[in-house]
Automatic annotation (TrEMBL):
MF (Gene Ontology): aspartate dehydrogenase [NAD(P)+] activity; NADP binding
Coiled coil: none
Limits of the Aspartate/homoserine dehydrogenase NAD-binding domain: 5-82
Family classification: Belongs to the L-aspartate dehydrogenase family.
PANTHER family attached to this UniProt entry: ASPARTATE DEHYDROGENASE DOMAIN-CONTAINING PROTEIN, L-ASPARTATE DEHYDROGENASE-RELATED
GO biological process, one term: NAD+ biosynthetic process
Record protein name field: Aspartate dehydrogenase domain-containing protein
Record domain Aspartate dehydrogenase: where: 137-224
Amino acid sequence: ARERPADLPADVVFTADVDEFFRADWQLGVEAAGQPVVRAHGPRCLDMGRDLLVTSVGAFTSDALFAQMRGLAQERRARLLLASGALPAVDWLHAAAGVACARVCVRQIKPPVAWAGARYDPETGQLLPDSHEFGALTEATVIFRGTAREAAAMYPKNANVSAMLALATNGLDDTEVELVADPSGRMATEIAYEGDAGALSVQVEGRPSPGNPRTSAIVPLSVLRAIRSACAPTVIGA
């Protein structure tokens, strides 16, 4: 287990014990540990009447889990908050989803190292062999085409953007996804939306997180903004 940081205030609970964590006095939980943690502990948090900010939004490729947690949030008067993470323009997209949507698609481009060892069996959760020999790629290569449900379930550490886009707009089975490994080191997200509310085309050139090449540097900043918004009396961009 990780040692307690020396500069952590004495009244802050630092623990790997789940029960001790839930016994502590807090109102907003922030999940930043992966889809299995959402499944294992998310319902308990909401059932206690506590708010929960989820970053591993791909966990909600399970309709049953999403329905359960939404139901608990309503019943216990808690809030289930889905972090936008690296997804831009969530406010516009979610608002536009109030009327008919013709097409939503997203293209996620990351360095090969981000995709290596990241492919899982959606049914068993077991790690699968890589779909490509990533170290041998010499040009940008599409490694997956399919729906947001398939992408987020097969690449749970990489494709949460796809799940978030789908949940905000056209649904997990009607949002098109393309995942690309680019040996140039490029990390980008390209989104296209067409519907009765208008059309939107967004391209974001991101930078890898220094501590995790699978994700973008904007993600922790986005989570911090979400925490501040959840606790603030004034929210910009609600």
